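Why does residue order matter? Because the sequence determines the fold. Keep that principle in mind as you read this record.
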Amino acid sequence: MKIRLDKYVWCVRLTKTRSLATELIAKGKILLNDQTVKPSREVKIGELIVVQKHSAKFEYKVLDLIDRRVGAALVKDYILDQTKEEEIQKLKVYQEAQRNYRLTDGKPTKKDRRELDRFLDDWSEIN
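Structure:
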């Protein structure tokens, strides 16, 4: 059986859509055996798929080939997750930083800025 890399990545649920898989492969975010390849490259059993998510690299070994998308419970029959624990921790740190960033209001309002200026002026008078 022959199957394209973009289709395989979509079939084993590493991406939501096949067009997204094609785009990520073309951008070099999904590698095959640590090399950039074209989306049309054929996948073989035993090859290593590396997926770059933010600052972490997830590694998957191809166990079997498939030509149609399977349910999440059946994915383990086709790929083996070989991701190192430190890579998973990198992703968790990134996600926590994003969560904390979203909790802030961002740029201070005009009122906030005036209050900050008053506080800093009062602070400089004390010292």
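The longest helix spans residues 85-103.
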